DNA sequence: AATTTGCATATCTTTTGCATATGGATCGTC
DNA sequence: GACGATCCATATGCAAAAGATATGCAAATT
């Protein structure tokens, strides 16, 4: 029967290209390692290594196997970690993720503050990443839940709860002629057609990027994307530097960025930044249950107001 | 150290909900199984099962772990299979996949025939699936190579070689007024704007579906998709039944489907069905090398003619 | 209260993974 | 061309660990 030991040994031998050296690295002697490799090859029914006078070399079968073996060993580590985390979760630990654009939203910060106050014993660990990475982390049980934007792709595995829709604002340099207008008046999206646009796009996943492009298309023009930034804050820095304008969620406007003004958009633009909570579909007990209770109550309160 | 044995045992116990019954299923006695489960829990540092008077029940940690354990055990099986296949490949075995729309193409059938003739000792195993499924199978080493349509998504892992572009024909019922026209004259895509269209779409992946929609958009109209079929042949049956027209690769026209006529499209439509070969990026030796040699020679020959 | 059910503990047996010692093949060097 | 070095394979012994048997203990059923 094949065991993880065989995989660990095969990977070590493949990496060292030497049975003897691999044995040293594994902290065992050479003969037993030779034995185990032979046993593995017998179980598979195919040679994984070509024995050569100066070491060993992977066969085609070996390459195919060792690649997958590495993944299996990594997955095993992850499984152990996930179990540990789930167990700690029952006793008061919670790992939460945010997209960078959600981190400053008062809803999110409010929930976190309330968790701290009402259950100070629960250790919170926070992580910032893109929506795509967060979804992946929740699926892999590396996070208990994540605040994400645009629940675009439905995943059977996850429950994605829509929390609220946030208005999006136009960010433009202070010295821009439009920045002097009455700040209460709303402007139309199409009036920005000629402005160079700076957008925020993470390497993984679509997120808000596509919604903005789509809204511009709906407004009858194709935006001139002057630059793409990988972090939302750097988008604002580029705006301040006068390279163009941008469109960001309202909560980002709370960051006092010198040199940036904000304008409200016409409601007709239909441009909103949805905020959602993603979590595993499995029954949520323990600390995650506490978080969900707080979140759902706050969503209800908002609806009432 | 955690071994696959622990995972196998944990999965069995989780599925049976009983240590005793799981032991029977595993062909061992109850006490050693209890021991191994304990050892696993100790290694993880968290209990996976809640011992109850009438059996055992998964904890939250247990659920997280067992789910991943199942995947790991499956992956291990796949790794072994992949290694076996790779090994057999060296000695003369080759697993090839097709999309259903490529299976009848003379290029593909020609390559297969030549393989048979020049290397009859090589055992070919063929599989038909959608482009998406085939790509996945090649990535997972379940197939050595696959003839696919539209190499849309670039994958770091794979080499996708474009082989040729095939013309696409309009398929329409015999009794359709247009079917009586001179078969040599080409018709424009836009002249089909009002016809109900029957398209072929596999549940997974885009494939030709999107190219057709895109070409119609480019021609200035949005096609009326009357029906979608999951197999290309059933598309033709629906056409024969008079439910609408369709657009299929030229090689499909070789299937003599009673009641279906074909018309050539205007070149301006720019509607072609690309045929490509997908394979792992790894150095291709053995039987796969033979196949590649035949394929590249034939591509060159075509270019010459 | 008695019986059954099912996991845990204790002790013994057997398997097997690992160590030590040695043999054999190939390469480089004198 | 012989010699030593390098590296894998084979042989044998030992010790750790997986598994078997017997028994204990707790909760639920009757």
How does this model look, in words?
The structure is a homodimer of 305-residue chains. Chain A is α/β, with parallel strands linked by helices. Chain A folds into 3 domains: 4-84, Winged helix-like DNA-binding domain superfamily/Winged helix DNA-binding domain (Arc Repressor Mutant, subunit A, Orthogonal Bundle), CATH 1.10.10; 87-163 and 274-304, D-Maltodextrin-Binding Protein, domain 2, CATH 3.40.190; 166-273, D-Maltodextrin-Binding Protein, domain 2 (3-Layer(aba) Sandwich), CATH 3.40.190. Chain A is 42% helix and 23% strand. Chain A contains 9 helices and 11 strands. Chain A has helices at 4-16, 19-26, 30-44, 60-91, 106-118, 131-139, 208-218, 232-240, 286-304, and strands at residues 49-52, 55-58, 93-98, 123-128, 145-149, 158-173, 196-200, 224-229, 246-249, 260-264, 272-280. In chain A, the strands form 3 sheets. In chain A, strands 3, 4, 5, 6, 9, 10 and 11 form a 7-stranded mixed sheet that branches. Chain A has a two-stranded antiparallel ribbon with strand order 1-2. The first copy, chain A, has a two-stranded parallel sheet with strand order 7-8. In chain A, α1 (4-16) packs across α3 and α5 (106-118) crosses α9. The longest helix of chain A is centred in the N-terminal third of the chain and has 32 residues, at 60-91. Chain A binds a DNA duplex (30 and 30 nucleotides) through residues 5, 18-20, 28-36, 38, 51-56.
């Amino acid at each position: 029967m094949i065991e993880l030991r065989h995989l660990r040994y095969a990977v070590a031998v493949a990496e060292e290209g030497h049975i003897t050296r691999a044995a040293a690295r594994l902290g065992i002697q050479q003969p037993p390692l030779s034995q185990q490799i032979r046993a593995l090859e017998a179980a598979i029914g195919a040679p994984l290594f070509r024995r050569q006078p100066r070491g060993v070399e992977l066969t085609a079968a070996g390459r195919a196997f060792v690649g997958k073996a590495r993944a299996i060993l990594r997955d095993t580590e992850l499984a152990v970690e996930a179990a540990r985390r789930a167990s700690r979760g029952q006793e008061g630990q919670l790992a939460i993720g945010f997209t960078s654009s959600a981190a400053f939203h008062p809803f999110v910060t409010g929930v976190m503050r309330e968790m701290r106050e009402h259950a100070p014993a629960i250790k919170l660990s926070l992580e910032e990443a893109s929506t795509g990475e967060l979804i992946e982390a929740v699926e892999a049980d590396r996070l208990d839940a994540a605040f994400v934007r645009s629940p675009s792709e439905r995943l059977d595995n996850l429950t994605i709860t829509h929390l609220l829709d946030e208005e999006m604002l136009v960010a433009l340099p202070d010295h821009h002629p439009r920045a002097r207008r009455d700040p209460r008046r709303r402007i139309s999206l199409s009036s920005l057609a000629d402005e160079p646009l700076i957008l925020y796009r993470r390497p993984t996943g679509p997120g808000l990027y596509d919604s903005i492009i789509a809204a511009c298309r709906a407004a009858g023009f194709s935006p001139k994307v002057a630059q793409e930034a990988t972090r939302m804050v750097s988008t604002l820095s580029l705006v301040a530097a006068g390279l163009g304008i941008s469109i960001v969620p309202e909560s980002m406007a709370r960051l006092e960025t010198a040199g940036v003004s904000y304008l409200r958009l016409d409601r007709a633009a239909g441009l909103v930044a949805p905020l959602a909570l993603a979590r595993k579909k499995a029954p949520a007990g323990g600390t995650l249950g506490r978080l969900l209770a707080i979140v759902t109550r706050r969503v209800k309160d908002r609806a009432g107001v």
